[in-house]
Amino acid sequence: MRSLQNPIDWGKVGLESLRNCPVCHLAIAVAMPQELWHCLPLLEEYEELRLGRMRVALAVQQGAVVVLYECGIGKVNSAINTQRIIDIFHPEQILNVGVCGALAPSLRVGDLVQGVEFAYHDVWCGEGNAFGQVQGLPPRFNAEGLLSDYLRESDYAIRAGLMCTGEYFVPESVEVERIRRNFPEVLTVDMESAAIAQTCHMLGTNFTALRVVSDTPGREADHQRQYREFWADSAEERFSQIVEILFNYLEDRNPEQWTK
Question: Where does the pLDDT of residue 257 fall: very low under 50, low under 70, confident under 90, or very high at 90 and above?
């Protein structure tokens, strides 16, 4: 196992070595370093690579080639780096793992949510387009693939529905109400999932997201404090459950049967 403090710099070694790697069964996108650290226990042994500023852990787990990558915060970072992962590793499916803010009143901090639809809450291209729709693309991007089906059909306590993405940490109840007006069935908000979903849609890659609620904007007077307390008190346990779910998924699947 390589240390995260001493990764291979593929910018110096050359990307051709990576382009010849075996098919990648699953790529897992996280936005932040703390999410990367909490997901690493899924990989019993891994090689860390560095693609520019992006950290990537590459492993074979339960017979499946798995890539875990830190895509960065926001739409541009997550889209660019997801395209790089797809171009290099050709994953059969991508999963976005991370935290989210809950807009559905029934959700609480620590709940797990699967995205099965994805939309932008801060995009408006004018008449003839739905709110959140990038002109020329679907109003919403749908989750697809074996992992998406597995999560929806499993016995785990996971809510499934619409995740909305925007370029800011939703701060106040007025913003929460605006998003709810435009997307009445929204479950959560984050800053990456719809951008990754759009990238996967355009490049023909299966995608879904599995996130844990870290805060409840609009319901908590100081949800920034709520967010900090989640990382201090609950993150390790909740990410451990995500790791368990993914470990069981990989164990239950025969990689030879995984197809697009």
Answer: low
What CATH number has the domain spanning 23-253? 3.40.50.1580
Distances (CA, A) of 149 to 91, 111, 169: 17, 19, 29
For the chain, the structural domain boundaries read: 23-253
β partners of residue 55: 50
Active-site residue, 251 included: no
Q: Does pTM top 0.85 for this prediction?
A: yes
Report residue 254's pLDDT band, with 50, 70 and 90 as the boundaries: low
Q: Please confirm, yes or no, whether 35 is among the known catalytic residues.
A: yes
Please list, in sequence order, all residues whose beta carbon lies within 8 angstroms of the beta carbon of residue 57, skipping any fewer than 6 positions away: 36, 40, 43, 46, 47, 48, 49, 67, 68, 69
Residue among 192, 215, 222, 236 flagged as catalytic: 215
Q: Which of 9, 35, 117, 190 is catalytic?
A: 35
